[in-house]
Each structure stands twice: as C-alpha cells, then as structure tokens.
Amino acid sequence: MSTSTEVQQDTRFFGHPRGLANLFGVEMWERFSFYGMLGILPIYLYYKVEQGGLGLAQESALGIVGAYGGLVYLSAVIGAWVADRLLGSERTLFYSAVLIMIGHISLALLPGLAGIGVGLVCVAVGSGGLKSNATAIVGTLYAEGDERRDAGFTIFYMGVNLGGFVGPLLTGLAQTEVGFHLGFGLAAIGMALGLIQYTLGRKNLGEKAKEIPNPLPSSRRLLAVGGAVVLVAAIVALVLTGVVNPNNLADVVVWVVGVISVVYFLVILTSRKITGDERSRVFSFIPMFIASAVFFSLYQQQFTVVAAYTDQRLNRSLFGWEMPVSWVNSINPVFIIVFAPIIAALWTKLGERQPSTPMKFVLGTVLMGAAFLLFLPMVGSGQNASPLLALVGILFVFTIAELCLSPVGLSLSTKLAPEAFRTQMVALNFLSISFGTAMSGKLAEYYSVDDEAPYFSTVGGVAIAVGILLFLAIPFIRKLMKGVH
C-alpha cells in the first residue's frame, strides 16, 4: 500500500488524517502572526517617533499596508507556480513558513524602514506561498469521493479564523503594554511554533503532497532561477534609487497587478488550447473579476481606513480601560466562525433555488457598499466618539458580504476554467483580490478623519453602482457561462 493511500485512510485526528492536524496548526499560527502583525502595522507606520512609531504621513502609511496586502495575494500566484513547476506543494509550504518567520524577526529586531522593507517583503512572499499551498495539500489527504473532504476543509478553515481571532488580541496587548517590537516579536514566536509542529509532522502528509504536478524541464530551470534573480535585483535597485518609495508603493502595486491580470486574460483568451465554449466562460469571468476587485478594495480597508478610524474616531473605552486598536481586527473572524456554517447550510437547503453565482457577487458588492454608507450617521461626532457597537454592526455587514462573495469566487474560477488553464484561472481569482487589496491602500490615501462624509458616500456609492450594473448584466453573463450555475 502506498504512503498516500495510508494517509488517505488515516483516522487518527477526530476521524480525519493526522496530517490535517499538522496543516491546521501551521495555518493557525501563520494567520496568528499575519493578522497579529497587520493589526499593529498601520499605527506603527504613522504613530510619531515618541509614541514608538516611524512618523510617516498617514496616507503613505495606509498606502503601504494596502500595497503589502496586494503583494501577499500576488505572491500566492507565484507560490502556486513554484509548487506546480519546481518544488511541489509540501516543500514550497515549508520554505514559505521559514520566510515568514524571518520576516517577523526582521520587523521585531531591525530598526526603522529597513525592518519594514525586509520584514514585509519576506512575510508577503512567504504568506503568499503558504496560502496557495496549504489548501492544496489538504486536498491530497482525501481520496476522490471521500465523504470527509468537506468536513476536513471546514476544520482547516476553523484554524485560519482561530489564528485570525487570537493574533490581533495578543499582539495588540503587547504593543500597548510594552511596545511595537514586542508585538512583532510575538508574531515571530507564533510562526516559529507553527514551523516546529509542522516539521515534526511532515511525514504524516504522504507522497502526494510532495509531487510536482507539471515539472519544468531541467533545461528551463536555470532560466527560471536567472529570471527570478534579475527580477529581485531590479526591485532592490528601484527601491534603493528611490524610484519606488513609501509614497508611491500603492500606485506601483496597483499598476503591476493590473498589467499582469490583463496579460493573463489575453494569454488564456488567445490560446489555441481552448474550445469556443471555454473561451465564452472566460469572458463571463471578466465582470466577476471586476466586481471581486471592487469588493476587496472596500473589504480590505479593515486594515487601512478602519484601522485609522478605530485609532482616531472610535470610543475604545471599556469600563475605564482603553481597548488596543488592533482588537477590532478580531471581530470579523468571530463572525466568520459563527456565520460561515449558517450561510453554507442556507445555500445547501435552498439547493437549486439558491441565487446563481453572479447574483451572489451582486449581493456581496452591494452589501459591501452599504457597509460604508453605515459610517455616515457617525460623521462629525468628534474625536474618539463613535460607539464601538456601531462599528461591530458595520463589521457584521462586512462579514455577510464576504460570505456571499469570497468562497464563491474561488469555486467559480475552478468551474469556469478551461481544461488547459485550471491553475491560471485560480491565479486570476487571487489577482482580483490582490488588485482590490492594493486599491484599499490607494483609496485610503483620500480618507481624512476631518472630512469623512465625501469619502464614505463616494466609496460606498460606487460599490453599490457596480453591484447594480452587474445585476443588470446577469442574463448576458449567464449566457456566456454556457451552463455553469
């Protein structure tokens, strides 16, 4: 019996393969470190030096956070390619986790912008590589048609949200009680723990996780490595010469991801390897790609505009104690843990009567726009005067919008993918998130605590308008989808 078959028949982790515990753990600690760091990063960048921060202008600081998030999702595309062509998912995940830990150590120990530069690049590339491969390895633990598969993914996503919940609580506490560098240090310790337990249990993952699905011919490997070295050298040169700097980073990432997305679509649409029906389905994905990018440009403002809002406009006083800014980032994971099973059960119960995928995209985009309009009643209430309960309510709307669109996007990209471009279509879904996340930093540059109404009404209104346009286009999109629901 092969090791892969042994792994798939294993029931040592609550009836699931033992490897699931391993992946649950590494993903939980990665999300702990990722969201923990993200909870304190914006305020670290714009707090004054005497407050322990770097003293950047707020718009530059929020732009950097958005650009960084965009790079994570762009790296997920690169991580998937490296796993498919060079290393296999299991080794790519391991090296990605090491890179994340190095990044958090850099943030904790290196002073000033040097720590930010080295730290964020390592964490972004590492998180992208881990994000795209952990999910793929979970899939290898189950044989085709194994009834435990969906439950296994549910357990895995619980790990994601558990880490996302606890991370901001602990790093925020460390930051307020001791300082920013202890907060970043905690994220490094969390990732180290994840890496240790992952290393100890690598043998539980089986041979299938190590397979390289589409190996690059050895003659082209040197070319790939050479290309990567040239690219890294070019990026370092652009940063050192000041062509790419904190003030324009968000713009650069938006443009880079935008161009890559257009090229990806053109490569797929002009390929001779796809049939007429497949080409039609790829065309149907374009409006959903745009809606997804618009959605994430608002949703990911949890880490840019909402962070600044929490710091400067939210009343964080709880019984005479001031809640750390980053704790707001723990609200969304709680809502996801509670409501994801409910929404999933609702779609299952409705069966064929559930909304079509384009309709779910409409719901997600419109709800996301509405969430921003809900900030308007609190405009002008003064410094740190907005009620915490109101923001909790707004983040609840964020979550319901996310559950309508985010899981569906990944599923849709696999359904509409031409046979020859399966991975690339999943990459396009990640690129829509990357584009939107970078835009969340770009848009945040226009946000001002002193004049909020135009910002919230414009951003919210545009998202609702995009949702309405998508709704009007549904009959046309359904036709292009050629039978895919």
Q: What is the first-to-last residue Cα distance?
A: 39 Å
Low-confidence segments: none
Largest sheet features: 2 strands, antiparallel
Helix share of residues? over 70%
Reading the helices and strands in chain order gives HHHHHHHHHHHEEHHHHH
The count of helical stretches stands at 16
The secondary structure category is: mainly alpha
Percentage of residues in strands: under 5%
What spatial order of strands do you see in the largest sheet? 1-2
- Radius of gyration equals 22 Å
What number is the mean pLDDT? 89
Main location: membrane
Organism: Amycolatopsis iheyensis
Transmembrane segments: 32-49, 61-82, 94-125, 155-174, 180-201, 222-240, 252-270, 282-299, 327-347, 359-379, 385-405, 426-443, 455-477
GO molecular function, one term: peptide transmembrane transporter activity
In short:
This is Peptide MFS transporter. This protein has helices at about 5-10, 20-45, 60-85, 90-110, 110-140, 150-175, 180-200, 220-240, 250-270, 275-300, 305-310, 330-350, 355-375, 390-415, 420-445, 455-480, and strands at about 315-320, 320. The protein is mainly α.
Give your account of this protein's structure.
By secondary structure, the chain is an all-alpha fold. The protein is built from 16 helices and two strands. It has helices at residues 3-9, 18-46, 58-87, 89-109, 112-140, 149-177, 180-200, 218-240, 249-269, 276-299, 305-312, 331-350, 357-373, 388-416, 422-444, 453-480; strands spanning 317-318, 321-322. A two-stranded antiparallel ribbon has the order 1-2. Strand 1 and strand 2 form a beta hairpin. Helix 2 (18-46) runs antiparallel to helix 7 (180-200) and helix 10 runs antiparallel to helix 14. The radius of gyration is 22 Å and the shape is globular. The two termini are 39 Å apart. The model has no long low-confidence stretch (mean pLDDT 89).
